[in-house]
Write a structure and sequence with these properties.
This protein is α+β, with helices and mostly antiparallel strands. It has two domains: about 240 residues, 3-Layer(aba) Sandwich (Beta-lactamase); about 130 residues, 3-Layer(aba) Sandwich (Beta-lactamase). Helices cover about 25% and strands about 15% of the residues. It is built from ten helices and 16 strands. Helix 1 packs antiparallel against helix 10 and helix 2 packs across helix 6. The longest helix has 14 residues.
């Protein structure tokens, strides 16, 4: 079990708690918990609000959350462990391990059907997959687009299909752009999960268990919440407006993203978004990426996590949002190259990512501080509450 003892310190996090309570009071969040680390020591752990509003259950620091894309951090680390063991190299073409993904076609600008394409200028590499610069898409965030339709038609993201099935489904689909030339959030991390299976000969879940979860004592992290622990699973809520994240109002949506998610075993062990976890377990994960003894990866690999892997002039971009200037992407998360208005002024070089339901992690450029934030509101990745939380924590730490 992760040690959640807070060491004596002089930091004042009063403003952080007040701000998070305000989001609960304004009916924008039902509850939120957080932790702040200085090195490997916890200097703040707290929570406000409720785990289940209808049942009136107060939120505790041991509740279980659907962490969605925070799963990507664990998957990326599993891949980097294979690199350290000499079993793969970052610039290996993916068809070396998954032949179906070789000889790709790329959609031409303005394409209206899958046949309107041209041969890819090069192979997808493992580095491209880690940094979401492979040309793959997600089939989730851009309804109405050609690739969204193709991914839906071929059931790329269907939970009833295994990771191997997903690779077969992707085999005949075109890429959004030539590998390494742009950025698009995608199923790349699920492809990496299948890569882990092929290289190790074990299921992805077994690899996570033996190489990450067991060594770090992450006893409450997995693809299924055990029946005797479901009382600890936080209820899931959606906001009243998709376009206005600050419009009050929440309604329960426990059946998202599909009925039975996290409550029963599905063939798909998603490396991109399939895990449930707790604040203590995620503290253990982040601790293992900070300087000290028994790190999950070597110091050389940890130093690489914050190196922007995108081509010159390329930034993160999302459908309907567009480019996010100043944000690159490393081997396990976004890298802040130039802070935006929503970022703390001192966050240059920070590594970060989160899940669509409002779970976030970040590590400062000097690897001396880190933060974790856990909420359960649909479409709460980079929500105003997470921006304010981080700014106030940076202020409290004097960064």
């Amino acid at each position: 079990m992760t040690d959640m003892t807070v060491v004596d310190n002089d930091y004042d996090f009063t403003a952080v708690r007040a701000a998070m309570q305000r989001y609960v009071d304004q009916d924008l969040l039902t509850g939120v918990s957080w932790a702040v680390l200085r090195g490997r020591e916890l200097v703040e752990v707290d929570c406000v609000g409720q785990a289940d509003r209808e049942a009136g259950t107060p939120l505790g620091t041991d509740h279980i959350f659907r962490i969605f894309s925070n799963t990507k951090l664990l998957t990326s680390c599993a891949v980097l462990q294979l690199m350290e063991a000499g079993q793969i190299a970052l610039d290996d073409p993916i068809e070396t391990y998954l032949p179906q993904l070789g000889d790709r076609q790329v959609l031409c600008p303005g394409a209206t059907d899958a046949g309107d394409s041209e041969p890819a200028a090069g192979s997808i590499t493992i580095r491209h997959l880690l940094s979401h610069s492979s040309g793959l898409s997600y089939g989730l965030l851009d309804p109405g687009s050609l690739l969204f339709g193709l991914y839906t038609e071929h059931k790329v993201n269907h939970p009833g299909r295994t990771l191997a099935d997903m690779i077969d489904a992707l085999a005949g689909l075109p890429l959004a752009y030539h590998p390494g030339t742009s950025w698009e959030y995608s199923v790349a991390t699920d492809v990496l999960a299948r890569l882990v299976e092929v290289v190790t000969g074990d299921s992805f879940g077994d690899v996570l268990q033996s190489r990450i979860l067991d060594p770090l004592g992450m006893t409450d992290t997995g693809f299924v919440v055990p029946a005797d622990q479901r009382r600890r699973l936080v209820a899931y809520y959606a906001g009243s407006s998709l376009t206005n994240p600050l419009q009050p109002g929440l309604h329960r949506t426990d059946e998202a993203p599909y009925p039975g998610a996290y409550l029963q075993s599905f063939p798909r062990q998603s490396g991109g978004g399939g895990l449930a976890s707790t604040l203590p377990d995620m503290v253990a994960m982040i601790r293992a990426l900070l300087p000290g003894d028994d790190t999950l990866l070597t110091s050389e690999t940890l130093a690489m996590l914050g190196d922007n892997q995108l081509a010159d002039g390329v930034s993160i971009r999302f459908p309907r949002v567009g480019e996010v200037p100043g944000k690159g992407y490393g081997l396990a998360g976004a890298v802040t190259m130039t802070p935006a208005d929503t970022d703390p002024a001192g966050s240059t070089g920070e590594i970060q990512w989160g899940g669509i339901a409002g779970t976030h992690w970040w590590i400062t450029a000097d690897r001396q501080y880190a933060g974790l934030l856990m909420a359960q509101r649909q479409m709460a990745f980079w929500h105003p509450f997470s921006f304010e939380f981080k700014k106030l924590v940076y202020d409290a730490l004097g960064i």
